[in-house]
Amino acid sequence: MTRARRALLVGGAAAAVGTLAAAGAWRASVSLGRARRENRAIERLLAVYRAQTRYYAIERGDGVRRYAPTLEELAAKAPAERGGHDLDVIAAASSATRALEGYWFALVEREGGPDWDGQSFAAVAVPAEYPRSGRRTFAIDQRGRLWAHETEGETPGPMPVEPTEAGWDELAAPGS
After folding, report:
1. Residue span of the structural domain in which 119 resides
2. Is residue 176 part of a domain?
3. Domain count, the chain
4. Which of 1, 18, 84, 136 has the most CB atoms around it within 10 Å of its CB?
5. Distance of CA 133 to the CA centre of its chain
């Protein structure tokens, strides 16, 4: 069965023009769904940023402020935002067993090596089923700067200090 025939059966259109329109509408709905998932991934990264900012504000007994090393710790120990919704989102996003609305979320190393001192962080959202669930990987750092890059669904290695020099596009934060 050809793609046109499947579109005819699904869309119920009787003419070739109707078949093309139905196929085009299907592609448009896939694109709209993908865009919605990408926007939700960015919203979740912004929730991680807000929670990391609150986590960093607390001294941990040794007089040193740090960012949380994992999403699990962040969800468990960051002070809740008014309403607490962002920590629920982070707890769901930290699942290693299922993607959240088409994206995997993780904290990744910053360029400079594994001797993490807790003074910076990079959180990423990677499409779980590239390109169906999303085309771009998104990242945010401790300064609240957002980036996008097509990694073909692969989790990026250490996040560069200057992602734009490594081909990442800087995005304007919503509301800016």
Report:
1. 3-8+15-171
2. no
3. 1
4. 136
5. 11
